[in-house]
Amino acid sequence: IMRPGTCSPLSPIFALVCSANAKDLPMTSHMESTGQFKIIVWEEENFQGKRSEFMMECPNAMERGFRKIRSIKVENGPWVGFEYPEYQGQQFILEKGDYPHWEAWSGNSAYRTEHLLSFRTIRCANHNDSRVTLYESENFQGYKFELTDDYPSLQAMGWSSKEVSSIRVLSGAWVAYQYPGYRGYQYILERDRQNGEYRKYTDYSSQAHSSQIQSIRRIQH
């Protein structure tokens, strides 16, 4: 339901699961080692060439012997892939399924990215418990809306502008898009990154050039 209002506090149970402090790291490592996250990558399109499996983050595929990654199969858990090493450049959501070539992960993106060079897990995605608040102005000021569902067009649901200047993720993980219909640049927004607080549009991504967001959805787990 999309509604104006004040954010309620995060539940203690969900805060424990999704917090990114040091005491949670052993739990995350256990989750990854037991196979909750698994991704297979290939150096060439259509699952050809050098191949490797990962169950945890890879900050630089070139250090693992890859020149580039051009096809992917996600077997478990949601991931986010990046254009450059060290989680830099354009970002792309990678949910369970096959990605035989770059069009499969970029979709109708306004930016052509033919390969990925780093990727990491999205640990706190929870499709059934996801809440986010959008703000008209930076630093959580101005008109606001709280969302708990997917919206292929924010304007059609009552958001009066093409711009979203700050975002607070209350639970789960979301992917926001530049244009309606889940098109254009992608911005991965997580409760356990930056404490869920994206105070200005440059917090959305290292490559964000404006605050334009016109559709948003929950990340599947």
From TrEMBL:
Residues 37-76, 77-123, 130-171, 172-220 form the Beta/gamma crystallin 'Greek key' domain. It holds the Pfam family Crystall. GO terms for molecular function: structural constituent of eye lens. InterPro entries: Beta/Gamma-Crystallin, Beta/gamma_crystallin, G_crystallin-like. Homo/heterodimer, or complexes of higher-order. The structure of beta-crystallin oligomers seems to be stabilized through interactions between the N-terminal arms. Belongs to the beta/gamma-crystallin family. PANTHER family: BETA-CRYSTALLIN A2 (PTHR11818:SF7), BETA/GAMMA CRYSTALLIN (PTHR11818). Crystallins are the dominant structural components of the vertebrate eye lens. This is Beta-crystallin A2. It comes from Micrurus spixii (Amazon coral snake). The lineage of its organism: Eukaryota, Metazoa, Chordata, Craniata, Vertebrata.
